[in-house]
Give the backbone structure.
Amino acid sequence: MARLDGWPGGGPEGPCDRRRGSPQGSGHHGRCPCLVRRKLMHLRQRTFAVAMVLACSLVWVSAQGEDVAIDPDDIGGIVTSANGPEAGVWVIAETTDLPTKLARIVVTDDQGRYVVPDLPDARYDLFVRGYGLVDSVRQSARPGQQVDLDATLAPDVRTAAQVYPAAWWLNMITPPAEPEAQLEFALTMKTCYDCHQVGNKATREILPAMLGSSGSSLDVWTRRTGVGPSGPGMAGVFTSLGPMRQALADWTDRVAAGEAPREPPPRPAGVERNLVITLWDWGSEIDARSDMAAGDIRDGTVNANGPVYGVAEMTDSLTILDPVTHRASVVKVPSVASIVVQGFNAAPNRSPHYGESVWARRADVRSSAIDGKGRVWMASRLRDRDQQPDFCTSSENRFGAYYPIEGSSRHVSVYDPATGEFEQIDTCFTADHNQMSDDNVLYFGQTGAVGWIDMDIWDETHDAE
């Protein structure tokens, strides 16, 4: 990527600047693939400009007197509405032509200009989303084309609010009047935020399946928090809210009656408009929480441009995405443990969306990390808790003698992408969140203690003791 300040004359006057807005502007600035050598400074400016256009192979387009430049693998243009150019709105390009559905998202600059860069060869549907708008009509395009997009103004506050962040809707809840009660309410609700984006469409609206025969919104909330794999845990948290449960019931009643957030969120500005977000639709709808790793956190060159690995706790899966080929795959994490049954994330409750026993699982996999060899380490159940190895409590083992552990509920698996095989390490301690040290020791934090695996010794001995 060429820096804008690397051009002859100090930077913001060169071709890269004109392509996607000046550095002082806040639109997306794309790369310029051309290398500028100092000897070009001695050429006449006209010859320089012609040479750069030919070398960069840019496709120049014009909209309302403003130049937008795109490479052959970009799509660019300008977004306008009845109010004129729309600044700080998202342009979303989606395709299903690749092995995995892909979306790339950029933000318009002050003149409504956008460039969706570096797109794989495919046909894309483009549309505009933004605060104060409704999603625009989708337009089809391929890389190398200009597409000027017509943004549609939202007809009313409620329609505009459908794309507001969940927090804007959640802020409609009336909190307790007393400061101590406010704090207690906030801390209790924080438990909900661990898993749910409270305020999104799924939480601010009530599914017909949850209505039942009772006309009480409070009864509906009691019913809705008791379903699914975390039903017992959610029901307990909801009950602990006490009188404040009615505030949630009143909130969904007000939303159902047509109320919406009064103030819109601010649109992206400044450096926020320089973000380019790429999303792949991988995994499944029921993966739930997933920990991901793309490289060794100690050395960013390990697994460079390689697959991204995600461990999906609820489905015993190691999900794999290749961001270069856009191919996704799923590998089941092996386990001989019994099916997990617990009040949080593993209750055998029926889901109103997916039915019975959807999340029955054994490995309960979490917390992935990539080592210097590109292997994926993860916490997973290998066996049941009461099948603890004897050395965990043996006086002949110095660790077992010092800190005997009667049972452990999650252990360690290692996946080698080169062979597609798993190795399993039966730990005395319960493994979960981890940190890899510079000397190749993988540490696992737990309440009151720290467990670890010396990865070099494991590779030498393959002996868990």
Remarks:
- The chain is about 20% helix and 25% strand.
- Residues 179-193 form the longest helix (15 residues).
